[in-house]
Design brief:
- The chain is an alpha+beta fold and about 475 residues long.
- It is about 25% helix and about 30% strand.
- A hairpin with a 2-residue loop joins strand 2 and strand 3.
- Helix 3 runs parallel beside helix 5, helix 4 runs antiparallel to helix 5 and helix 5 packs across helix 6.
- Bound molecules: zinc ion.
- The site of zinc ion has 9 residues, from loops.
């Protein structure tokens, strides 16, 4: 019996089955991968740049091997050196003037700070989420859960500040974290000894001001006023000092606040007095970097290479306060992950053996790169993406074309309509689509036609190949005629 049938319902059913087939495929694939990895001898290497208290850049190498961890250090010339204490750098990124796809997408509009007294006071910076936005602090006693008031641009107040008293902070700045400190990042034990920045002081860029918001005193002070404020961070300097009776000198660390503008990095000491200023060489002005102060009037700037998640090396620049580059060096870092975009494209092809998914990934990846600032515009990013994705896309498409052709031939053999639609379906959806096609319906039994001898479906009265009527089955005498 053959009746005309719609194509939408069977296609939808086949698509659902294809998704299910892919889920099973992915699950089995993940199990296989986990089992395979557990059978491997497991050794991984991570290298990162460290700057010793005396200003020498060193490479820290951590090797994890079957549960054991070893840490070694070497100088840039490759010689092994003992590990010692480190300087911490100020991370001074250039917030990408990225168009956030949707306002505040993926960002919380609340930032948490703590004043670690007993009981601790929790302060929340609330941003209104507007592109050209503003925000204010509200504090709560962590024991009584009662509000302790608000802090606006003009300082503490018992009630919610009116809009004019909020801190100006545009959305991009807020999203890229232009506060100096966050809760969790600060060190509650640090006191206010003039050498460090206590955790209850938040430094932030608000409009053309760098502000110190003292959450304990509940006051707001302007540290610096300038156009072109870009980012702020806390760094550490060290001076060798030898206390009486001590054998070897130890270094004393001091924290400083670094403020980056379009052309300078200005360093402040804890009480808020300007301590040093460095002109930025032109070639560093558009780059995000780690800033180390390694001595009076000299700084080390490290620019990461590669994608943010996989730093494959650092470019080092030694600069003086006048903005001269005194020395430069390239440091290759072994991150254990031998990552390449090509490998990732092949992994995507293995994980999603469907041409339409791979094509979508190839088209969406450059869009994401433009959004997160890794590429200047979509056409450029698209060219790179296509250069990386075409081999896996070609292989997956050829395999899918072979499966689509098989499906088309089979469909004709069963004498079913819409063969071209199913050809396109399997061509686009690949292996999962083939599974979906095969299982989306019952298939009639094939038998050889007594007239032409072809294998044809027996769900109808005439042969799909030679159009001759099938002979009626021989009567057995037990049939009931109504
Ligand atoms: Zn026939």
């Amino acid at each position: 019996m053959s009746k005309p049938q719609g194509i939408i319902r069977p296609l939808g059913l086949a698509l659902v089955l294809a998704a299910g087939a892919w889920a099973v495929y992915a699950l089995v694939g993940c199990w296989g991968l986990v089992i395979w990895e557990s059978l491997q001898r497991y050794a991984r290497t991570f290298e990162s740049l460290k700057v010793a208290a005396d200003g020498r850049p060193l490479i820290q190498r951590i090797v994890y091997d079957s549960g054991q961890q070893s840490v070694t250090f070497r100088a840039l010339d490759g010689s092994d050196v003992p590990g010692e204490d480190w300087l911490s750098s100020a991370s001074l990124p250039v917030p990408v003037p990225k168009r956030l796809a949707f306002p505040m997408m993926g960002y919380s509009r609340v930032r948490v700070f703590a004043d670690p007294q007993t009981p601790a006071i929790m302060w929340y910076f609330l941003h209104n989420g507007a592109r050209d936005g503003r925000g204010y602090f509200v504090g709560y006693d962590s024991y009584s859960k009662l509000s302790v008031g608000f802090i606006g641009r003009g300082g503490w107040r018992p009630d919610e500040p009116p809009a004019g008293d909020w801190f100006p902070m545009d959305e991009v700045s807020f999203a890229s974290g232009r506060h100096g400190y966050y809760y969790g990042q600060n060190d509650a034990d640090r006191g206010e000894d003039g050498d460090s920045f206590p955790g209850w002081k938040d430094y932030m860029i608000s409009g053309t001001d760098v502000l110190e918001v003292d959450l304990r005193r509940r006051s707001v002070t302007t540290v610096m006023e300038s156009d072109g404020l870009i980012s702020i961070g806390i760094l550490e300097t060290a001076t060798k000092s030898k206390a009486a009776g001590e054998g070897s000198p130890h270094s004393k660390h001091r924290q400083r606040l670094a403020v980056r503008t379009t052309d300078r990095v200005v360093v402040f000491d804890a009480p808020g007095k300007q301590y040093a200023a460095y002109r930025l060489p032109d070639e560093l002005r558009d780059k995000g970097f780690e800033f180390y102060e390694i001595g009076a009037g000299s700084a080390l700037v490290a620019v990461g290479q590669g994608l943010p998640a996989y730093c494959l090396g650092e470019s080092l620049f030694w600069i003086d306060s006048a903005g001269n580059i005194l020395r430069r060096a390239e440091v290759a870092l072994d991150q254990g992950v031998h990552y390449s975009k090509e490998t990732e494209a092949w992994q995507a092809a293995l994980g999603f053996p469907c041409p339409c998914v791979i094509a979508a990934v190839a088209l969406v990846t450059p869009f994401m790169e433009v959004l997160n600032g890794a590429a200047p515009n979509y056409p450029t990013a698209l060219l790179h993406s296509l250069a990386v994705f075409w081999p896996p896309l070609l292989v997956v498409t050829l395999l899918s074309a072979a499966m689509a052709w098989y499906c088309f031939r089979r469909h004709a053999r069963y004498g079913q309509p819409h063969g071209a639609v199913w050809f396109m379906f399997v061509l686009l959806t690949g292996l999962p689509g083939l599974v979906g096609y095969l299982f989306h319906r019952r298939w009639p039994v094939l038998e050889n036609c007594p007239h032409c001898g072809q294998s044809v479906p027996r769900d109808r009265e005439i042969c799909a190949h030679c159009r001759e009527a099938f002979p009626l089955p021989a009567l057995k005498g037990s049939e009931v005629f109504a």
